[in-house]
Design brief:
22 strands, alpha/beta, Metallo-depent_PP-like, disordered N terminus, elongated, iron
């Protein structure tokens, strides 16, 4: 790269740095005013004057009028040399399609004089302030259009710092602001500052944009990332008036990226509202998504990550099934959540867009506060409680009556085929007791579903079970047959793992898990997502990040193991 050096002789300097103006003169004016108010003595732009906005030519006079020093980004190199595309570095076809629309518009609305001026700009700059070596780049010291993401590993950060060797490196291009102190291979330290962009929000649901203040004082450097309010309504109106894609305006108005999304790494993308293009969701799930105006969709709430929360109230059980995927039994530690934790989870679920809660165990009816839990949840969300149906007697029978009449509540009872097959798995007399439980629930008007785990001992008995249950007021479509899972107590069955299975957010006393068929920390540590202290929103984000990471790694398609009927 060409290097440009100049020497500043002042001992103290405050520099305001912006990037990615994206044809947004409204934010650029606000940047100048805010930076001057905060005492900045130099204003610098790190490139990409044009892109998603509609007024590229309005940017140039502002840069000139306010003496903003500039280096070239990929847009300036592309337009200045009359390239056919923006050189953005996108690899996804849909990202490239949006990028091409933005570039073609900018190219067509940039004057020859402005383009010629762009061609004179350096692609990097170096200077010293009181012994602090500062390096300005657009993407990174490696490449003009390199995406220097905060989530890169330590080696990747160090490689970029080593390539610079400066005390401070400032960049933009990726659109997301961050700072980090990096120890270089030579033992020195580099302060890396991604200054963010002025042209659109940082995919955080906020309308403000970002720039950075760099303070150089007596041989030391520090940086502050500054949120910047501006006339976003005017920018959105300008984009619409120009006939640019609606998604460009929606980003401005909502703070969430709805285009050029696939370039985001899993960690950064998981923090946003949207994670997939509609076309990608259809490819991965085999199901066309619900029609909508936006080209993007969230992962959570789709076929690949249902808006469902599984809650393990406990792990002790009155039965000891040899195929239990979470190793429940009468001897298993209780590991109970408790009523307070349960209600807090329901509140979190409601706020997070969860539409249904599945309550399971162990045997949930061993939990003294279960009915209170179910009542609290059913008043707010659709609730299904998984049970072996054998404990509806005495106090529990009376408690069960309190649930009658709640339309949002369903009991899902486990019945494993014929009486002989069921009892062979669960113990003599358990089938009769479970059927009695079905009858008691139906007599109270409670909806009942049935789940059958298919093993070598009851294979092919699903239809016969449906016929039996029809006489007990359980419709055939309310009976589901699911395969045995090689988890917990079972060494045989379907291999369910994060690498091959659609996630279903699950919480237990031990923490958060990828899927309910493996929510036991002792026997399924690979399913663990986070500790009990982690909140629901963060647990969901971790699942999304892990999903995207695995998909990015090998492109494999997940399958659905349906515990829910």
């Amino acid at each position: 790269m060409t290097q440009h050096a100049d020497r500043a002789r002042t001992r103290r300097s405050r520099i305001a740095l912006c990037g990615g103006i994206y044809s947004n003169p409204y934010a650029l004016r606000a940047f100048v005013a805010d930076a001057r108010r905060r005492g900045a003595d130099r204003l610098i732009c790190l490139g990409d004057f044009g892109a998603y906005g509609a007024e590229p030519e309005a940017v140039w006079p502002l840069l000139d009028e306010h003496g903003i020093e500039c280096i070239a980004g990929n847009y300036e190199v592309a337009i200045g040399s009359r390239q056919a595309d923006c050189l953005c570095g996108y690899t996804d076809d849909t990202d490239n399609a949006f990028g091409q629309i933005a570039y073609d518009y900018t190219f067509a609305h940039t004057s020859e004089a402005f383009a010629a001026w762009m061609a004179t700009l350096p692609i990097e700059r170096r200077f010293d302030v009181d012994g602090v070596a500062v390096h300005l780049v657009h993407g990174s010291p490696l490449q003009l259009n390199d995406f220097w993401w905060e989530s890169l590993d330590d080696d990747a950060h160090r490689m970029r710092a080593d390539a610079s060797g400066a005390d401070v490196v400032c960049c933009t291009h990726s659109g997301l602001p961050w700072t980090r102190r990096i120890t270089r291979s030579d033992g020195g330290e580099t302060l890396a500052v991604n200054v963010g962009v002025l042209g659109r929000p940082a995919n955080d649901g906020e309308r403000h944009v970002w720039y950075a203040l760099l303070d150089l004082d007596d041989g030391a450097a520090s940086a502050e990332l500054v949120p910047l309010d501006y006339d976003w309504r005017a920018q959105a109106a300008s984009i619409r008036a120009a006939g640019l894609p609606e998604s460009f305006a929606e980003v401005i108005e909502t703070g969430w990226w709805t285009s050029c999304l696939e370039i985001l790494p899993p960690a950064e993308r998981s923090r946003g509202r949207f994670q997939l293009y509609r076309s990608v969701l259809a490819q991965l799930s085999g199901v066309d998504p619900t029609p909508g105006d936006r080209p993007v969709v969230p992962l959570f709430g789709s076929e690949l990550f249902p808006p469902r929360l599984w809650i393990y109230t406990n792990f002790d059980c009155n039965l000891a099934c040899s195929y239990c995927s979470v190793a429940s039994s009468p001897q298993a530690p209780r590991r109970r959540l408790g009523l307070g934790r349960f209600t807090a989870l329901v509140d979190e679920a409601l706020d997070a867009g969860v539409t249904e809660v599945y309550v399971t165990g162990g045997e949930p009816f061993l939990e003294n506060d279960l009915v209170e839990m179910l009542l609290y949840a059913a008043e707010r969300l659709e609730v299904v409680c998984l049970t072996n149906g054998m404990l509806y007697r005495g106090r529990r029978r009376a408690e069960l009556e309190r649930l009658a009449g709640h339309p949002g509540l369903t009991l899902q009872t486990s019945l494993d085929g014929s009486e002989g097959a069921h009892d062979a798995q669960r113990g003599r007399g358990t089938w009769a007791r479970a059927m009695e439980g079905v009858d008691i629930a139906r007599s109270l008007g409670l909806p009942v579903r049935v789940g059958m785990t298919e093993t070598s001992g009851n294979a092919g008995q699903g239809d016969a079970l449906r016929t039996i249950l029809a006489d007990h007021d359980v419709a055939p479509e309310q009976v589901a047959v699911r395969p045995l899972v090689a988890r917990g107590n079972s060494a045989e069955g379907v291999l369910v793992a994060p690498e091959n299975t659609v996630p279903e957010l699950t919480v237990a006393a031990d923490g958060w898990f990828w899927h309910p068929a493996g929510a036991d920390r002792a026997t399924s540590p690979d399913m663990l997502i986070g500790s009990p202290e982690v909140g629901l929103v963060e647990a969901r984000r971790r699942v999304v990040e892990r999903f995207l990471t695995m998909r990015q790694r090998d492109g494999s398609l997940p399958t659905i193991y349906q515990c829910a009927v």
